């Protein structure tokens, strides 16, 4: 019998450089937002081909900050794919605007733009330049495509729909640092975007986020709002006899990243290409071997011309391949499989949840699971497998063998 191992879903990739960078910040005495944050913002923005980076405490706060800066508020509808982490629609709701949960494609897990083309004219009525929600009277004002699991949404189609209905676009790039369509990095599709540096992401600062934008006015506004909307920045205040506090003429936030975190981020950025290449190499092994070891799993799609960075390696249990006639039967199979893998020391997760069935949105939007069948299927059937820099081939085959053993024990080949 093989010895039980312990394989996490994800591990951050550090060496001595992060500890060294943190030690330098501590020795400097300036540990709050300062020069390291500015350096980190420049490094990320330059990498993604964006003009400005505004670091924040998380992607959730980056999304919220960007939405406030873009002027969203009560009476606005924002289209959000239902199959995403709850932080995406929550960031809309914080502003007083309404997150309208929409469908995703089950092959890419990203927003289904064909579905949207039918939905928008059904749900909204044109009045002059505006599209008004037939039920609530809200104005359709925005869309948040999510580059889920490290694969970009179809941005050509999203931007086309946005032009057609005059929508502002904010990209949720929490999972997508380094992802591309053709030669274009996420962050360079012409819209503001929000990144995450949570440890489940490619690079980490512990917690952290960043808005990327090419719009200088928006960048300045977001810098101000993230720091209580102070009319002078900390640096300006200290250059100008720091004992007097400036005016605070808007409702701002404290969404500042610390220099301790940013120093880790700067060190992590130097490893980003290596991390991306390693993750892609390990994902390619799953892609190659899963059809042999676990043909009942559908591997994640990387459409032609897209660079997936596999922040999550999200496969899907295939009900037809298993001879199930309902999603619920396949869902039970997936959950039993996760338990079996857990018993063998292998951590898995469902890809993410679909938000229209979570308590808050279920009560508020009154959607039934099958109102968005694609999103619901992704919730019930997705299975994320361990993937991180340092996952050995031997551990990866341990995972694959357990995927095979489980189906054999169930009498499925
Ligand atoms: C798609 C998506 N958006 C937003 C977030 C929120 O990111 P953070 O944890 O940095 O606030 C996450 C986190 O997992 C996410 O997956």
Residues in helix, %: 40-55%
CATH class of the largest domain: Alpha Beta
Globally, the shape reads globular
Structural class: alpha/beta
The Rg value, from CA coordinates, equals 22 Å
What is the average per-residue confidence, as pLDDT, rounded to a whole number?
A: 96
Tally of contiguous helical segments? 15
Strand content: 5-15%
Let me know the largest β-sheet.
Answer: 4 strands, mixed
Query: What name is given to the CATH topology of the largest domain?
Result: Aspartate Aminotransferase, domain 2
- The CATH superfamily of the largest domain is Type I PLP-dependent aspartate aminotransferase-like (Major domain)
Task: Describe it.
The chain is an alpha/beta fold and 413 residues long. The chain folds into two domains: 16-269, Aspartate Aminotransferase, domain 2; 272-409, Alpha-Beta Complex (Aspartate Aminotransferase, domain 1), CATH 3.90.1150. It is 42% helix and 15% strand. Strands 1-12-11-8 form a four-stranded mixed β-sheet, sandwiched between helices. Helix 1 runs antiparallel to helix 9 and helix 10 runs parallel beside helix 15. The chain is globular. It starts with 15 loop residues before the first helix and ends with a helix. It binds pyridoxal-5'-phosphate (PLP). Residues 58-60, 84-85, 87-88, 146, 148, 172, 174-175, 196, 198, 209 line the site of pyridoxal-5'-phosphate.
